[in-house]
């Protein structure tokens, strides 16, 4: 007889995401996160040395899922405008399916942990690699600025609860493209 093993570290990461999305980083104590995950506080510390470690690990997981969704079905060798639009829409749709993820990303992006989280994901981020593939046709700005002008708009849109019809989403994607592509 086999019993299914519960991935408590995954429960803790999801709880971190939800608590931060609802209460912000400062409102996310390890005891509250553990309670949300349905585990003892000590269990959370078995898997993560600190709240900061948990934020970084949760961010890595969120970014990996976002990258997989963003790149799903995208031909990176296609025309850059098409690549951009496909990635943008995929990311938007992925976030719209779980708005807490978008709110979590906004909290981390606006926190002192931004650098640590970005450094942790830097070399293994497929979205960053895709951006670098089309970078030669983009305006010459730091990658963080390009992100804010493009995918950052999708994150903020979903995090705010704003829903646009497909035609307005197309207009927004085009506006983001114009923001990062020299005319």
List the helices and strands and how they pair.
Layout lengths: L7 H16 L6 H8 L3 H7 L3 H21 L8 H17 L2 H11 L4 H8 L4 H9 L8 H7 L1 H9 L6 H15 L3
Account of the 3D structure:
By secondary structure, the chain is an all-alpha fold. It is 70% helix and 0% strand. It has helices spanning 8-23, 30-37, 41-47, 51-71, 80-96, 99-109, 114-121, 126-134, 143-149, 151-159, 166-180. The chain is elongated, with a radius of gyration of 18 Å. The mean pLDDT is 92.
Helix content: 55-70%
What structural category arises from helix and sheet content?
Answer: mainly alpha
Assembly type of the chains comes to single chain
Beta content: under 5%
Beta strand count: 0
Radius of gyration: 18 Å
> What is the H-and-E element order?
HHHHHHHHHHH
Total of helices: 11
User: Could you describe the largest sheet, including whether it forms a barrel?
Assistant: none
- How widely separated are the two ends? 65 Å
Give start-end ranges of low-pLDDT stretches: none
């Amino acid at each position: 007889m086999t019993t299914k093993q519960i991935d408590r570290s995954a429960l803790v990461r999801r709880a971190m995401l939800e608590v931060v999305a609802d209460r912000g980083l400062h409102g996310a104590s390890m005891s509250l996160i553990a309670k949300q995950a349905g585990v003892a506080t000590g269990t959370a510390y078995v898997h993560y040395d600190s709240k900061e470690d948990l934020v970084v690990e949760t961010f890595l997981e969120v970014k990996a899922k976002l990258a997989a969704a963003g790149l799903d079905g995208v031909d990176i060798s296609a025309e850059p405008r098409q690549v951009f639009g496909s990635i943008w829409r995929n990311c938007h749709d992925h976030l719209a399916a779980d708005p807490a993820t978008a709110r979590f990303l906004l909290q981390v992006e606006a926190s002192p942990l931004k650098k640590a989280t970005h450094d942790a994901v830097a070399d293994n981020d497929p979205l960053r690699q895709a951006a670098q593939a089309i970078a030669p046709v983009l305006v010459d700005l730091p990658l963080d600025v390009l992100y804010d002008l493009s995918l950052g708009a999708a994150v903020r849109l979903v995090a705010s609860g704003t829903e646009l019809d497909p035609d307005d989403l197309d207009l927004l994607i085009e506006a983001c493209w114009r923001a990062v592509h020299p005319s």
